[in-house]
């Protein structure tokens, strides 16, 4: 409907003489005879059939599974770029973790309620964070690291920075699994955490186990999957409308600013739709992981 409606408005604008008027274009569409309305409805139906037929392939395209030789070079460049970004995020996470720990240790040692055993654990952890060798007493002291819970002593701002860096890093799979698009990396990072039974593949995981999962979990997965496919399809629709707007408005002599404004608006909407697809992918991946954990706990023994 979005595709057919916008295309109809653009085509009416192309036929206007003088200054362009969106209100006039809408009024023209409202005053259409029944034959033209039937054509518009048929256009909606045909567009829906065509878009739905390629929804899955569209999703795979934006994930980065590119089959075109023309795009292979671009894909290699993007994979190298994302791999470097992942390496930088790993280094930043380590740096922020060390800074947060050093701050927590300083605060803890300055406080009066810390025991000698906790001091020894802090000192052993300090050697671990800074890569210094441990002696036997340090290894014994590290046994109390879980009970120490050192982050409770750290600065909230440093912990926040560390948490944000970890969230960004969690959107990347392992280096050998990096894809050329951010959407693909977000989905693969989640999918790689799914526990599969021996001989089972990920692609049909939810289909095979849908009858075993709670209805709420299946509904959550379905909702995110529909949003994901919708936004990926919408990107193609907006790209087509951007091209159509150039074709319809480029020859207009009146109000030349519209020639750039309308196509740029569609391009900006493509960026928003892609961001929305990434947000949906995060929820989709979480739903798949929850399904895997539920099956692991209630149904099948998974490795």
Automatic annotation (TrEMBL):
Name this protein carries in UniProt: Uncharacterized protein
Keyword Membrane on entry: yes
Keywords recorded for this protein, A-Z: Membrane, Transmembrane, Transmembrane helix
TM stretches of this protein: 34-54, 231-252, 264-288
């Amino acid at each position: 409907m979005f595709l057919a409606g916008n295309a109809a408005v653009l085509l009416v604008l192309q036929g206007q003489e003088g200054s362009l008027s969106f209100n006039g274009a809408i009024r023209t569409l409202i005053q259409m005879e029944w034959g033209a309305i039937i054509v518009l409805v048929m256009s909606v139906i045909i567009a829906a059939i065509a878009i739905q037929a390629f929804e899955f392939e569209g999703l795979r395209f934006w994930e980065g599974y590119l089959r075109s030789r023309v795009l292979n070079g671009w894909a290699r460049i993007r994979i190298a770029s994302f791999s470097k970004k992942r390496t930088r995020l790993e280094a930043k996470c380590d740096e922020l973790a060390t800074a947060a720990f050093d701050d927590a240790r300083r605060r803890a040692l300055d406080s009066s309620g810390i025991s000698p055993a906790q001091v020894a654990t802090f000192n052993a952890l300090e050697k671990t964070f800074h890569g210094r060798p441990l002696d036997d007493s340090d290894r014994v002291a590290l046994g109390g690291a879980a009970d120490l819970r050192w982050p409770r002593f750290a600065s909230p701002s440093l912990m926040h920075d560390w948490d944000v860096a970890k969230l960004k890093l969690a959107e990347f799979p392992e280096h050998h699994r990096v894809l050329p698009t951010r959407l693909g990396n977000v989905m693969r990072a989640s999918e790689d955490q799914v526990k599969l039974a021996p001989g089972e593949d990920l692609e049909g995981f939810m289909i095979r186990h849908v009858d075993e999962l709670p209805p709420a979990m299946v509904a959550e997965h379905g909702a995110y999957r529909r949003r994901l496919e919708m936004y990926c399809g919408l990107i193609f629709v907006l790209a087509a409308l951007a091209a159509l707007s150039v074709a319809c408005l480029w020859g207009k002599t009146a109000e030349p600013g519209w020639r750039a404004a309308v196509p740029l608006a569609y391009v900006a909407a493509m960026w928003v739709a892609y961001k929305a697809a990434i947000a949906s992918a995060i929820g989709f991946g979480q739903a798949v992981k929850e399904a895997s954990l539920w099956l692991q706990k209630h149904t099948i023994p998974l490795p």
